[in-house]
Design a protein that fits this description.
Recoverin, domain 1; two-stranded antiparallel ribbon
Length: about 100
């Protein structure tokens, strides 16, 4: 559907597709499923973040026993939060591309 889309559009479409392939019929993930999805699909961004207080706060919230499920909006907020604190983000900022 986004064959001619921009790189950013394709990135967000991929995030939505990955999320939707893991979500239940209501379009939600349990907190445990969310944690697992982040660990398997977002490992490059979360690697080495274990000692950061914000990372620990996010993961602790996902570890809590709760009936609450995560929707796509909350998943994207978690993803952006993890990206912003990631050491990988600084490496990405240092990459210069030419077109």
């Amino acid at each position: 559907a986004l064959g001619k889309g921009s790189d950013l559009e394709k990135a967000f479409a991929t995030a939505a597709l990955v999320y939707n392939n893991s979500a239940d019929p209501e379009g939600k993930l349990s907190k445990a499923e969310t944690k697992s999805l982040l660990q398997t699909q977002f490992g490059g961004f979360i690697q080495g973040q274990e000692n950061k207080p914000k990372y620990q706060e996010i993961i602790s919230a996902l570890d809590e026993e709760s009936e609450n499920k995560i929707d796509f909006e909350d998943f994207m907020i978690l993803s952006v939060s993890l990206t912003l604190m990631s050491d990988l983000l600084q490496e990405i900022k240092n990459v210069k591309t030419t077109k």
